[in-house]
Amino acid sequence: MINLESIARKITTILFTQQALASAGFIAAATLNSIVGKELSGHPNWAGVPTAIYLLAGAFAAFGWGYVFDAIGRRNGLTSGLIIGAIGSGISFYAIAIHSFAFFLGGMVFMGIANAAVQLARFAAAEVSNPQHRGRAISNVVIGGTVGSVVGPFVAGPAGKAILSFGINELAGAYLVSLILFVIAAVVIFIGLRPDPREIAKQIAEKYPDTIMRSKVVRSMVQIFSQPAALVALISMVLGQMVMVLIMVITSLHMRDHNHLLGDISIVISSHTFGMFAFSIISGRLSDRWGRLPVIITGSATLMLACIAATLSPDVLPLSVALFLLGLGWNFCFVGGSTLLADQLSPLERSRTQGFNDLLVGLASAVGSLGSGFIFASLGFNTMSWIAAAVSIIPLAAASYLSLRRVAVS
Q1: pLDDT at 205 (0 to 100)
Q2: Strands, E assignment, 44-133
Q3: What's the CATH fold of domain 4-409?
Q4: What is the Cα gyration radius of the chain?
Q5: pLDDT, tens only, 218-277
């Protein structure tokens, strides 16, 4: 007899490992994207364009990946995504070496497509786990990003110095590191992710029939997101991502304009990404214990506080605290929202609905990234932070309303 719990632990461990490797690669690049965008384009208001392109590519790819994961399995889907990421990193490295903004945007497209595939790994962990432990399973994968939060930003400096010795722009070093990490992650998934989570999910559905959403008809997206709980889950992830990206993307350039060195920028971005991932194990368990909605409410309130704190000072310590809170708030919204959405779906609805969700998340964050450059250039960092704080009120209000409504019904 197959031990489903043992297999679930193994699968979650493999997904954690690939998340750690991939996130280090993505974060290493994200640390410098706005700086590279300004340098290659020659215009500060274009600083957010590379990340916007990266996010848009990921957004449109996410919906497609949902169908791909159903067709070829989670293992082959994730492996393919990581290989595409390695190609994108190589193109970005070459673009910086030859000082081509167009080539760099091309590399961002490939990396965005790859990130969309990697993000769906959290749902693969959820579908192989006991329904009562879905929040924990998602958080155990997301926490892999803690490694990336520490390693990613800090490789930018040393890798840049190593590349500079060969006469190549120091900004290219981080993208070479990303390429190597994506290749390693692809090997880990291809060898280790057996059996495929898609097959285990079917057995989980049979073992826990009372806790799985079932329907003879696969519902449309309109039907699914007309449910208040599914809609709140979507709002929390979409707007939580938008707020986080709006501030994160431009912080490096904001600090550069205040004459901070790459080392100072790395400290702040590392603090932010540490907040994004390190507390996933807590947010997942709180999601299972408190409930999904209280976690989303806590995350939204933390996002609002972070945006206000970011306006206080451009110095390293205050910005580190503000960006840490920004990451923590995003984590609570992301984990709580992902778990709440997983609760609303039948096995046949999962991949395509989760892909559609990530499509909207990507589109929202792309708008935040693209808008950050223009808002920063025309209105400044503080005004942008206040706008982000106002946006964070929306998921806070939506989750609070649904929570109060449930209490009233009960």
Answers
A1: 66
A2: none
A3: Growth Hormone; Chain: A; (1.20.1250)
A4: 20
A5: 787 888 888 999 999 999 999 999 999 889 888 887 887 777 767 788 788 878 878 887
Q: Which residue has the higher pLDDT, 117 or 284?
A: 117
The ranges assigned to domains in the chain are 4-409
Q: Which amino acid does the sequence have at 235?
A: I
Query: CA-CA distances (angstroms) from residue 255 to 14, 138, 149, 160, 342?
Result: 36, 33, 19, 19, 38
Question: How far is Cα 319 from Cα 267, in angstroms, rounded to an integer?
Answer: 10
Contact between 213 and 345 under an 8 Å Cβ cutoff? The reply is yes
154-167: pLDDT as tens digits = 776 777 778 877 87
- The distance in angstroms from the start CA to the end CA of the chain is 41
**108/368 Cα distance (integer angstroms):** 16
Residue pair 227/406 in contact by the 8 Å Cβ criterion: no
Distances (CA, A) of 83 to 77, 90, 93, 185: 10, 11, 16, 9
Number of Cβ within 10 Å of residue 403's Cβ equals 17
Question: For position 183, what pLDDT does the model report?
Answer: 97
Distance from C-alpha of 258 to C-alpha of 315, rounded to nearest angstrom = 9
